Automatic annotation (TrEMBL):
Protein name per UniProt: Type II secretion system F family protein
Regions crossing the membrane: 113-133, 139-159, 304-324
Main localization category: membrane
Domain of life: Bacteria
Membrane is among the record's keywords: yes
Source organism: Aquipseudomonas campi
Membrane topology classification: Multi-pass membrane protein
InterPro entries for this protein: GspF/PilC (IPR003004), T2SS_GspF_dom (IPR018076), T2SS_GspF_sf (IPR042094)
UniProt keyword Transmembrane, yes or no: yes
Segments forming domain Type II secretion system protein GspF: 19-126, 200-318
Alphabetical keyword list: Cell membrane, Membrane, Transmembrane, Transmembrane helix
Length: 332
């Protein structure tokens, strides 16, 4: 089965994997010896062993990870950029921290959603009971009235997971209307743009720090972008730099959060010869800002869900129609 059709490794396993790889890379172990020490559950370990075999056959780190299905397409692109920069240790660390933080947030979000989820299920179970007891609703109609909203919610959650996985793939070269719309979504669009630009400038800073020329580093940094509209815009930046414009001037036509401040920082970095360190410091601050946004989201989303469920129940009680969906006459 091609790697692209294999389901991504779970967040917790990815956090452990990259933490172990970062530690081994810092210790100076070659990639094959580092992988030989990695121990992960069941099917994930099979992928580790498949990647190890590919490394011993002469594949490079990123290609072996992609072929074995161990790394996502975006991770492959980041690691290819890191390999060009010399060492993937910093990317390993950043990915490990990123996934560990996402695991913590996911657990917190799940625990906070338990109460509104329980209230919703109880409402679905209790609201149609008077009609069932009075004989106005069949048992099948009652069960369908309870299950239908749950099935719809499950389908929406699965679609959401697929959509989030899509955001972890490198974008196509041609800008798409969906990605352009995504950047305009309130709150989320700005966070999505910040994550993409953080990835771009961090990868660029890593490669420049390792001595890679700007002209070679820019295309590799562009490949880390997962939004096709942003990738198209940043390809324009690449062309302006190739035409002789300094980076601080080349980013001015772009539109992304924090651009004026970054342009000023880049101008200072170019003048002082500390551009790689400037870009990496900017990326570190953006990572902290994104982590804070995700924490706020994990705090407020359960509260909003709870309020929505409570309002839905109140509306059903006040109107007398209940909160269960209307049923076809033949099911009543």
């Amino acid at each position: 089965m091609p790697a692209k059709s294999v389901a991504p490794v779970g967040l917790a396993d990815r956090a452990i994997l990259f933490a172990q790889l970062a530690a081994m890379e810092k210790a100076g172990l070659p990639a094959d010896r580092a992988l030989a020490t990695v121990q992960l559950p069941g099917g994930v370990q099979n992928r580790v062993e498949a990647m190890l075999r590919l490394l011993t056959q002469g594949r490079d780190l990123a290609a072996a990870g992609q072929k074995s299905g161990l790394f996502t397409p975006l991770e492959v692109t980041l690691l290819q950029a890191a390999q060009s920069a010399g060492s993937p240790a910093r990317v390993y660390e950043r990915l490990a921290e990123h996934y560990a933080h996402k695991v913590t947030q996911a657990k917190a979000l799940q625990s906070r959603l338990l109460l509104p989820a329980a209230v919703l299920v109880l409402a679905l179970l209790i609201q149609p009971l008077p009609s069932l007891v009075a004989g106005n609703l069949s048992l099948f109609g009652y069960l369908w009235g309870v299950l239908q909203p749950l099935l719809i919610l499950t389908a929406l959650i699965l679609c959401g997971r697929q959509w989030l996985q899509r955001l972890e793939r490198p974008a196509a070269l041609r800008a798409g209307a969906r990605d352009a719309w995504l950047l305009r979504v309130p709150l989320f669009g700005q966070a999505h743009a910040r994550r993409n630009t953080r990835d771009f400038f961090e990868s660029l800073g890593l490669m420049l720090e390792a001595g890679l020329p700007m002209f070679e580093a820019l295309p590799k940094a562009c490949a880390t972008l997962s939004n096709s509209q942003l990738r198209s815009d940043f390809l324009g930046l690449q062309q302006r730099v190739q035409a002789g414009a300094p980076l601080a001037q080349a980013i001015l036509p772009l539109d992304f959060p924090g651009k004026p401040q970054l342009a000023s920082l880049i101008r200072t970095g170019e003048a002082s010869g500390t551009l790689p360190a400037t870009l990496l410091a900017y990326a570190a601050r953006e990572s902290l800002a994104l982590a804070d946004f995700q924490e706020q989201l994990a705090t407020w989303l359960p509260r909003l869900v709870y309020v929505a469920v409570a309002l839905w129940m109140a509306y059903g009680l006040l109107t007398g129609g209940g909160i269960a969906p209307r049923l076809p006459a033949e099911l009543g």
